Amino acid sequence: MTDVELGGRLVDDQSRCEHYRTELDVVAIRFACCAPYWGCHLCHAECADHPAVVWPADDRQAHAVVCGVCRHTLAVGDYVVADGCPRCGAPFNPGCRLHHHLYFE
To answer: Which of 94, 51, 91, 85 lies closest to 67, judged by CA?
Structure first.
């Protein structure tokens, strides 16, 4: 497992947080403004000392997403089309697509 810094109000070791904690909520995302991978956008809003900065549309190669199951990092461009982790096969919550605009231009 790759060692990554996770932030937020986490409730388990697979990056689930107190806001999103279904079986499929195993993704943590970095914002362009800071290093930790956050459990969710609400965790960043509550725990970071600055406003969130989304990833620009021309930075789809940035590894800004981590699978909470195996700690594999994904580039933004790969994550936005993924249904699950390409390394371990863990499914991702399809509802997260509704929040992409909060993380990525």
So the answer is: 85
Tokens standing for residue 52: 């969130």
Nearest C-alpha neighbor of 16 from the set 90, 76, 102: 90
- Decide: pTM greater than 0.90: yes
User: Which residue ranges make up each domain of the chain?
Assistant: 6-103
Contacts 24+ apart (CB under 8 A), 91-97: 91/24, 92/24, 92/26, 92/27, 92/67, 93/20, 93/22, 93/24, 93/25, 93/26, 93/27, 94/24, 96/25, 96/27
Cross-strand partners of 67 = 27
In order along its 105 residues, the chain shows pLDDT tens digits of 568 999 999 999 999 999 999 999 999 999 999 999 999 999 999 999 999 999 999 999 999 999 999 999 999 999 999 999 999 999 999 999 999 999 999
